[in-house]
Design a protein that fits this description.
Elements lengths: L4 E6 L4 E7 L1 E6 L2 E5 L6 E13 L7 E13 L2 E5 L3 E3 L5 H17 L3 H27 L1
Parallel strand pairs: 1-7
Antiparallel strand pairs: 1-2, 3-4, 3-5, 5-6, 6-7, 6-8
Helix pairs in contact: 1-2
Length: about 140
């Protein structure tokens, strides 16, 4: 199909999305990235947040939450690699709230810098997931 780019979103467990897109928007570490076909090659880190994929011929975007990871862009292919990626329809607010609570508790009980950094990372991911859930709820 003309004027599209192939997109693969992959978690540690499975391929979450594989198909063509008109464009992709996702959370880069320096801000939101918009990717269109023929984009300049790039490899960068992404932060926890929402990946929006505009599928040709569909009004609704495909939405995937990623816990962070890496992005590789080639002129005709976008690859998102994340330890955790969850389709929007599979997001669970109760689980995200529990993860946030556990991370906050862990931050209170940790003493080493490495333990605190790990707990902060978990907390940031849980907060980003809750923000994604609330944002998606507003779209419906």
């Amino acid at each position: 199909m003309a004027n599209t780019i192939h997109v693969d979103v992959v978690s540690a467990e499975e391929s979450i999305y594989s198909g063509d897109a008109e464009f992709v928007v996702l959370p880069g570490i320096m801000g939101e990235l918009g990717i269109y076909p023929k984009h300049t090659p790039l490899v960068t880190q992404i932060k926890p947040g929402v990946v929006r994929i505009k599928v040709p011929g569909q009004a609704e975007e495909q939405i995937v939450f990623v816990q962070g990871g890496f992005l590789e862009i080639q002129p005709d292919v976008v690859t998102v690699l994340s330890d955790t990626a969850i389709r929007a329809r599979d997001l669970d607010e109760a689980k995200a709230l529990e993860a946030k609570r556990v991370a906050e508790e862990a931050m209170q009980n940790k003493t080493s810098k490495a333990e605190i950094a790990a707990a902060e990372g978990e907390l940031a991911g849980a907060i980003a997931q809750l923000a994604a859930i609330r944002k998606l709820r507003g779209r419906r």
